[in-house]
Amino acid sequence: MQFDHRRAGGALLRAAGPIAVAVAVQSAGNLAFHALVGRMLDPADYGALGALLAAMVMLGIPLGALQTAASAHAAAHGAGRATTLGTLRAVTLWTLPAGVLTLVCAPLLSDWFHLDGMAGAAQLAPYLIVAALLATARGLLLGTRRISAVAGTYLVATAVRLILGVALALPFGVTGALVATLVSEVAALAWSVRVLVRDREAGSGTTLRPRAVGGAAVAVTGLFLFSTVDLLLARHHLAGAESGAYVAAATVAKTVLALPAAIMAAVFPRLVAAHGLPGRARTLLSASAAVAGPALFGAAVVAAVPALVLSVLYGDGYAGATTLVQVLSGVAGFTSLVTVLTNAALARRSWTTLVPWAGAVLEIGLIQLWHGSAAQIAACSAAALLPTLLLIAVVEGRAWTRRTPVLQGV
């Protein structure tokens, strides 16, 4: 039977609709959270908060590989009560040592980010464990096609974070905003587990294995490091107020990647199914349009009215960051192409998934050499993007357009 690329792709994109809507709401909520908290804190404190929130996401993003692996596992074996509880128990055991290590390193992290006390950095430890469990639970739900339940987790997390963020940031500052973020993830996890354990069937009873997560972890971690390391280094190298301006600009710019990331989750299985079959180049092109199109459009809109966006979200205190917003929005838009091509490499299990890692190393090297101002750091981020995108585009373009030999007798 011939694989129908258009029909399969359309079905996947329609299935991703609820998640795409929920992620759009989450992105708006994330901007609202930053806008509200950014107005409550002075720029120096907001810079510290932004760096810690980026570190939280950086800890959680590699665990997004758990979502991919758990989704595949649930699709193959089911996700009844026994499978769910066994898998979540296993993931807890895997991530507990990492959480303890993060807690031990809290003093070093506090010094790196120039924080007052260790309370903020210490919260990275429980966040790591909760993020791992939430990614796994979402994967199990996706694998059993409970798409609306996954969308619900994003909506719950957004609502809890906004409400608690406003309530806790004013009296407790950076620590209160971080507590709101952690509790929002706990609420989303509770929502996921509640849906999963209502399934009384045992399923196969098999649990997720660590080796199933490895390849996806390499790709996801490299992508996130490549797209976020500039923000972390900006906090380290720049003075308090200037680091706050960079965090504000980067937060606005990188928000354009949230919705395409949700679409990518739906497109990735299509890439897996299409690789090795005739017409796969068309599949890659349509995937690129579906993912990078919204990102580039969003980046163009933000870059066209940066002053208005900053004024609405953060007030007049960040008016000087308009050029940063324009540069970083462009970088974020074209980074979405790197995301698609890296997922294409993952679909065919290629070494090309390491290209974003090389790009991140290049970006770190450039920023370490030139970090005298926020503009220099943004320029270094843009300079690292160009060779990274060109390399992965050439390699994956050749792989996906190479003629597939027709097997006789099959």
From TrEMBL:
Residue spans crossing the bilayer: 12-34, 46-66, 87-109, 121-141, 212-233, 245-268, 289-315, 327-347, 376-395
Give the record's keywords alphabetically: Cell membrane, Membrane, Transmembrane, Transmembrane helix
Top-rank lineage group of the source organism: Bacteria
* This protein's GO CC annotations: plasma membrane
Q: How does it sit in the membrane?
A: Multi-pass membrane protein
Q: According to its UniProt record, where is this protein mainly located?
A: membrane
* Location of the protein in the cell: Cell membrane
Q: By what name is this protein known?
A: O-antigen/teichoic acid export membrane protein
